[in-house]
Structures are given as structure tokens and as C-alpha cells.
Write a structure and sequence with these properties.
mainly alpha, 0% strand
Length: 116
């Protein structure tokens, strides 16, 4: 990436990635997407579980729920949509903080509101 400078970094969900890649594809129809972008778009189309706006809203709500839940963890939870405490423990196994069963239940209840 010669000549490009990273200005800022944000964690986004797979659904938001799908939206960004679709927008990029539409903006440059005369140019074909790079192989990596095409593969990423196919992956996002296959595994995005929520619409982009809903995923962003859910990520924001999760981040507001607990102070230990940052943007990266919230995006991971939205992407994977765990169904029980065991799933949350597996997802957060390498993290510094492990939620209590009560905190995990609050997370699951919020995720259930958005589950289709």
C-alpha cells in the first residue's frame, strides 16, 4: 500500500463490511474488484446475520451495556450471535475479563431481541 496512510482504525461487523464492499463495487463498476475484496464480499454475504444498520445499532447498545465491552468485542458478539453462556465464554476465552453468568444473560437477552 504505497502512498496510503492509516488515519484511524475502527472495528466493524460483517454486515457493515458487506455494505462497504457493495458500495465500493457499485462505485467502481468499470474496474473489477481485487480478488481479496471479491472473496471478502462473498464471505460477508454468506455470514452476515443482520442488516448493517441493525448490526451497528446492536453493537452500540452492547458497548453501552458494560464498560469492559469495547468496540472489538461488541462487533465479535454481533457477528457470532452466541445463544448461551457457554458460547460467550468460548468467544471471550482469551480476553482479560470473563463476564459473570448474569452479565452473559443480559448480553443474550439483548442479542435475542435482534435475532431473526
Amino acid at each position: 500500500m504505497i502512498g496510503r496512510k492509516k488515519v484511524e482504525e475502527h472495528y466493524i461487523t460483517i454486515a457493515e463490511t458487506k455494505e462497504l464492499l457493495h458500495r465500493r463495487k457499485e462505485d467502481s463498476e468499470e474496474e473489477e474488484m481485487f480478488y481479496e475484496a471479491r472473496v471478502s464480499l462473498e464471505y460477508a454475504e454468506r455470514f452476515a446475520k443482520l442488516p448493517p444498520e441493525t448490526a451497528k445499532e446492536l453493537r452500540e447498545k452492547l458497548m453501552g451495556l458494560f464498560e469492559w465491552l469495547d468496540e472489538r468485542l461488541a462487533a465479535k458478539l454481533v457477528d457470532l450471535m452466541p445463544k448461551d453462556y457457554f458460547d460467550i465464554r468460548v468467544i471471550l476465552a482469551k480476553e482479560d475479563y470473563m463476564p459473570t453468568p448474569e452479565e452473559a444473560e443480559q448480553i443474550i437477552q439483548l442479542l435475542d431481541e435482534y435475532r431473526s
